[in-house]
Amino acid sequence: MTGAEGDRRRALLLHLYRAALSAVDGRRRVRAALASDRDERPVSILAVGKAASAMAEGALDALGARVQRVLVVAPEDGIHHELLALPQVRCVAGDHPVPGERSLAAGREAADFAAATPAGSRVLLLVSGGASSLLEVLAPGVTLEKLRRLNEWAHAEAVDITALNERRATLSLVKGGRLPGLFRQCAVEGLMISDVPGDDPAVVGSGLLAGVDKVALVGCLDDALEAALRAARARGIDAARATKRLGGDAAAAARDVCHEFAVGTRSLELWGGETVVRLPAQPGRGGRCQHFALSAARQIAGHPELVILAAGTDGRDGASEDAGAIVDGGTIARAREAGFDAAACLEAADSGSLLEASGDLVYTGPTGTNVGDLVMALRLK
Q1: What's the CATH number for 3-22+222-379?
Q2: pTM (global) more than 0.90
C-alpha cells in the first residue's frame, strides 16, 4: 500500500469516527433534548462524568437564565475553561479511572450542593460514563483503600463494566439510586449518555440515576454507529453494522472481528462495545482499544488492502492519553523495524509503545461524550 493510499484510507476512517462522535456530542444532544422545555422554574444542575462539561453547556444553551446553580464533576482535562468563567457554575475534578481523594472531595461537594438545594426546586442530573470513578460518598465502614482495591482488581481481572458497577454501588451512599434522595423534596429529572449494554439508568454511572422517574437517554452507542454508517454510505461505501456488541477479552474479540470481516464481502464493517484486558502486575502503556488494535494488526499483517480503527468515543483509552489506533497490513513490519515484538508487547499490556513506534496511534483529547468503543474495518483495493 502506497503512502498516499494509506493516508487516504486512514483519513476516511477518521472521518467516520468524527461523524460518530458528533452524533453523540454531549452539548448538542442535551441542547436538543431540552430545546422544547417550557418549564419556567429555576433549575439546579449536577453534571457528572466524562461528558459532564459538554452536557452542562448544552443545558445552559437551552435553559439560559433559568439555570441558577451548576456543579460539574469531570476529569481534570475534561473541564471546559468556558464554564469556569460563569458565576453560577462550579467545576470540580474527580479521579479517573481509579477513584481517589479527589473523587471523595467531589462527593462531598455533591452532597453539599444537594443539601443547599431548596425544597421544591427543579433538579436536573446529567450523567455519563466515567461518573462511577469521578464522584463518591463512601458507605459507613468503607475505606478509600477498599474502593481502590475493588477497581484495581476489576481492571486486573478484566471484569465487565456491568458487574463492576454493581459491586461499586454496594460501597456507596450515592450510587445504586441513592443520589436523587439527597435532593430532599425536589423534582429530580435525569439525562444520560450511556456507555453500558442496554442503556439502563440503573447501571450508567453505577446507578446515579436509578430511581429517578423521568430519565431521558440522549446519546448511546447505537447513535454513534448509525451516524458512522450513514456517513460511509453517503460516500458510496458498501457498509454494514455488526449485530453483536463487542465484549470479552480484547485479543479474542480482535481475532473474531478479523475473521468475520475476512469471510465477508463488505467494504466496511462497524462494531461497538467495550472489551477487557487482563493486566500484568506492572502494565505498560495503552488501553483496551490499543490492545485490540495490535491484536488485529497481527491478524491482518501482510494484507495491504485492510485497515482497522479501534478507538474510544471519550478520547481516552484506559489510562492512556490516546483514543486508540488505526492499524494496517504493515503495522507489524514497521514495529519490527523499530525493535518491537508484538507478542511481547501484548503480554506486557504495552501496546501503546509499539503503536507509537509504528505511527498508528489516534489522539483526539477529551471529546465531550462517552458511549463506549468503536471498531471499523475497511477493505479497499
Answers
A1: 3.40.1480.10
A2: yes
